[in-house]
């Protein structure tokens, strides 16, 4: 599966804001945004004003980078959001939030979405008791996501069980630290999604 392999901190510096691509590291003084306020690359004097099209592109790129998705799959998610009833932008964010890798991240089983994607592809999680190693799998309300029996003996998950109690879980999810399982209580609403994304700008980008 193709994925971005460059420096994650450059993406945050280019956007000029923290996108939490490295998990807890982003909240420490080691964060690139804290150490370098300017964007990456050589300074070339005063920057030109960004066009409306450029703003739309940047917002779309930011959403892709936050959720760790390449262009083709992101476009497929947008097409699905358009097909569904309701507001297209909110549908898009809901689809992104309900991806298996994002749910694993939101439950606190991983420090970043990139790490969550890796854990999923290595087969460490089950959905309703069945192993699933596809990060883009869409989770539905009522589904139970848990660490597989074969993975619970690993040192990573043993130490994780001790730390889950301090993790903050969104209101649309519930977490059982003892059994290393989580449940989707309901589909997230726009108010439940804390990602700083202007979804309407993304809709305008694809509606050109």
Question: Mind explaining what this structure looks like?
Answer:
The protein is of the alpha+beta class. It folds into 2 domains: 8-37 and 50-96 and 195-206, Ribosomal protein S4/S9, N-terminal domain (Ribosomal Protein S4 Delta 41, Chain A, domain 1); 101-184, RNA-binding S4 domain (Structural Genomics Hypothetical 15.5 Kd Protein In mrcA-pckA Intergenic Region, Chain A), CATH 3.10.290. 40% of the residues lie in helices and 8% in strands. It has helices spanning 8-15, 32-35, 52-67, 71-83, 88-97, 100-106, 113-121, 155-163, 199-206, and strands spanning 125-127, 130-131, 144-147, 173-176, 181-184. It has a 5-stranded antiparallel β-sheet with strand order 2-1-3-5-4, with helices on one face. The longest helix is centred in the first third of the chain and has 16 residues, at 52-67. The radius of gyration is 18 Å and the shape is globular. The two termini are 29 Å apart.
